[in-house]
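2024-03-11 09:14:02 INFO worker-7 job=invfold-0412 stage=load source=structure_tokens
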């Protein structure tokens, strides 16, 4: 699509546009594309066929190309109503676990059923431990106490008719915060429980 700026100017202002003096303008070149986030995650990656995609997602090292990530943040707020004054007093506010929703389509570029890709994702679901989730968007939320750890709560495999080389999926993940529990020594000698 091309725009005839001279004609647009003429229609808008009723006169010819002034001639520009090329020496009057100093237009700097556009800066280069930023390839990594401030937290060190890449903004771009390429798939096996060399196609570039934005915001790659890695779950326990497995690259999930062309995935989209949704994030839900919630707080738990304990409120005490103030019957005589109206309103309430907020006593405790804490940030809940982050919820991540990852949607994508596993595609076999050899035009075959993506069995190996489905098995790889299913094996991650079967792990009964926290996994490492890395992406430019998820690192914003999982940086620090969560150490990029999540647990896979659910994977859905929606049915698709007439497609042989692709399988959509949707994953629900929850952040898995790491806490250090410090216990104080309460007893000085041996403790006799008695039987």
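2024-03-11 09:14:09 INFO worker-7 stage=emit residues=195
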């Amino acid at each position: 699509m091309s725009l005839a700026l001279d004609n647009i100017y003429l229609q808008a202002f009723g006169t010819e546009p002034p001639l520009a003096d090329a020496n009057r303008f100093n237009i700097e070149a556009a800066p280069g594309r930023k390839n990594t986030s401030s937290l060190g995650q890449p903004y771009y990656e390429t798939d096996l066929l060399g196609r570039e995609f934005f915001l790659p997602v890695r779950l326990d090292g497995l690259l999930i190309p062309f995935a989209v990530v949704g994030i839900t943040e919630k707080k738990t707020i304990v409120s005490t109503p103030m019957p005589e004054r109206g309103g309430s007093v907020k006593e405790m506010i804490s940030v809940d676990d982050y919820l991540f929703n990852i949607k994508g389509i596993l595609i076999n570029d050899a035009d075959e059923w993506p069995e190996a890709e489905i098995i790889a994702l299913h094996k991650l679901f079967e792990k009964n431990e926290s996994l490492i989730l890395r992406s430019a968007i998820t690192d914003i939320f999982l940086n620090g106490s969560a150490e990029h750890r999540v647990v896979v709560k659910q994977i859905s495999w929606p049915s698709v008719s007439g497609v042989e080389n692709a399988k959509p999926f949707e994953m629900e993940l929850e952040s898995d915060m790491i806490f250090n529990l410090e216990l104080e020594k309460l007893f000085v000698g041996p403790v006799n429980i008695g039987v």
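2024-03-11 09:14:09 INFO worker-7 stage=report msg="The helical segments are 5-13, 115-126, 138-142."
2024-03-11 09:14:10 INFO worker-7 job finished
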